[in-house]
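Quick one: structure tokens for this chain, please?
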Amino acid sequence: MAQLWGGRFTKETDQLVYNFNASISFDKKFYKQDMKGSMAHVRMLAKQGILSEDERDMILKGIEGILEDVESGKLDISDEYEDIHSFVEATLIERIGDPGKKLHTGRSRNDQVALDMKLYTRDEICEIDALVRGLLEVLQRLMEEHVQTVMPGFTHLQKAQPITLAHHLGAYFEMFKRDRGRLSDIYERMNYCPLGSGALAGTTYPLDREYTAELLGFAGATLNSMDSVADRDYLIELLSALSTIMMHLSRFSEEIIIWNTNEYRFVEIDDAYSTGSSIMPQKKNPDIAELVRGKTGRVYGALVSLLTTMKGLPLAYNKDMQEDKELTFDAIDTVKGCLALFTGMLDTLKFNKTQMAASARNGFTNATDAADYLVNHGVPFRDAHGVIGRLVLYCIEQGKAIEELDLEELKSISPVFAEDVYEAVSMDTCVNKRLTLGAPGEKAMREVIRKNQEWLENQGCLR
């Protein structure tokens, strides 16, 4: 068992205890970040005169060689080491001898793992942000294409008022736009370097922590060494943001699943994102949407688990914090996979415009506009509400939509109705007279689409 801390102990750790304690099986995921942090640390040590330039160059060359060999497959990250830090340091000493033993000068595994996790998380936030942006670009394209695609809007899963597909999709654009904002906030808040904090109380070596932070692209160094090694707030924030992304994806998936049913037939999912049944040849199942919906609970679980882990921990570092990694790694991988697949599914989705429009007409989504028509002709709103209620009941009995009734039938409900009612309750009128910013009318929607495009062009990568 390769350990870097054996001097205090007089006998070997029990193998089961060692295996339970070890993190190499999962923290090898951030081997690049570990070596990147070590190289910055070494450069800082040489700048401060703690290492000679020759020692610096030997260590840097040694780490670069390890990184190259790991990435080429010549060197395996072996589970005989307790963690990724032990693997790198032991391999370095094996390759360059005594200078390698100076790599750990002025740092602890506590601030080292805090750094590695921040570097890894920072990289992953950028990748997740790019995936969310890709989804927003697909939504923006679909909104531009469907400004005139009429469909029913719903409350309580009941048809409520006519809207457009662009308007419906625009609601999700707003959700995912906020998700990008949350990722940006987290990136900015977490972007301070913990390296040099030591185990919890800093170090007696004259480190230049701001220089290390600069080398690694941080905004600065953290200001309290105890908090530096004990802080997992940024991971809790990230898991919360990822949970919100998954909640948005799950809501959207649920709607696509409903729209895909025979009862709705609003959409057809591309064959590449569907599966069939082993015994029912007619089936085309929305498996990707269902899996995205299902995996949401998995990401929620990571958030609750880490909150529970951290809630009773005294300062500073505690081994419990090792539990942050597998949870976060899995949540990140899950969200990235779901974003990529959902975006592909949405990009290839076919919308049945005719069925959507028919559904809006047959669901009395223009009932509110019919009431407004009466109000505009002098009928008090409460009375108009009652009249249209009776009108809808009559339509249901006759199996007709409001606009399918002849004028005589309409007048039998209220003599106020005149020929102009047909224009007033047409789907196009009902949608397009709603012109307040944020409403589904075409003019309002095109202004929102313009603002969206401007926002997309101005919101670059987090780095």
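The CA atoms of residues 182 and 333 lie 18 Å apart.
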